[in-house]
Amino acid sequence: MHEPFQFGRKTLTTNTMALGNSHEAYGKVGTWWFLSSEIPTFGAILVAYIVMRLGSTGWSEASHHLNFNIALVNTFILLTSSMTLVMAHAAAQDRDFKRAANFLGMTVVLGLGFLGMKAIEYAGEISQGFLPSSGMFWSFYYAMTGLHGLHVVAGVFINLVLWIQAAKGTLARHSHRIELAGLYWHFVDIVWIFLFPLLYLA
């Protein structure tokens, strides 16, 4: 009497695992499709910036008014946040969701730190009269960093939701979501790696 029941339970468990794996696979495919759609958006504006800068004068002088120190700190913040998210994913794989929650919380704090530093930088530039209408360089600068900033806001929100789930202990069934959030967050970091030298070093 017990063997059919055991067999049925094993079958049910196998089907549940297969369904979970399919959800994970669909999530990865969807995330990669989304990121692929974002590449042309950032790629187009980066190419336009490079072409316009090569064909114009006065851009280097305008870029000297940017706050390099804040940008450098923000670069360090984003790179560190990528590391904490990787560690959150590793903790989730080890089924240590308390540690995963800690690292997710760190990622959220670092993301907010990036946005706060960027707000300070914007405030300094605006106070000096450098607005999007101040010239072509400034139009591109605010467009590129603003678009990137919106993606950081979205990433912070996603990681905040995951942190809440991990803290409540409800993330165990969907731990793969940390990996998906990591793919998006790393993409945001890579975009900044392109923006930083183009805006602050070129």
Describe this entry's structure for a reader.
This protein is mostly helical. It has one domain (2-201): Four Helix Bundle (Hemerythrin (Met), subunit A) (Up-down Bundle), CATH 1.20.120. Helices cover 86% and strands 0% of the residues. It has helices at residues 2-54, 59-63, 68-93, 97-127, 136-168, 176-201. Helix 1 (2-54) packs parallel to helix 6 (176-201), helix 3 packs antiparallel against helix 6 and helix 4 (97-127) packs antiparallel against helix 5 (136-168). The model is unreliable at 1-20 (pLDDT under 50).
Features:
202 residues; mainly alpha; Four Helix Bundle (Hemerythrin (Met), subunit A); disordered N terminus
Instruction: Report the top-level CATH class.
Output: Mainly Alpha
CATH superfamily: Cytochrome c oxidase, subunit III, four-helix bundle
Q: Find the CATH topology.
A: Four Helix Bundle (Hemerythrin (Met), subunit A)
Gross CATH architecture: Up-down Bundle
**What coarse outline follows from CA principal-axis ratios?**
elongated
User: Helix and strand string, N-terminal first?
Assistant: HHHHHH
Provide a quick synopsis of the model.
The protein is mainly alpha-helical and 202 residues long. Helices cover 86% and strands 0% of the residues.
Question: Which helices and strands, and how do they pair?
Answer:
Elements: H1 2-54, H2 59-63, H3 68-93, H4 97-127, H5 136-168, H6 176-201
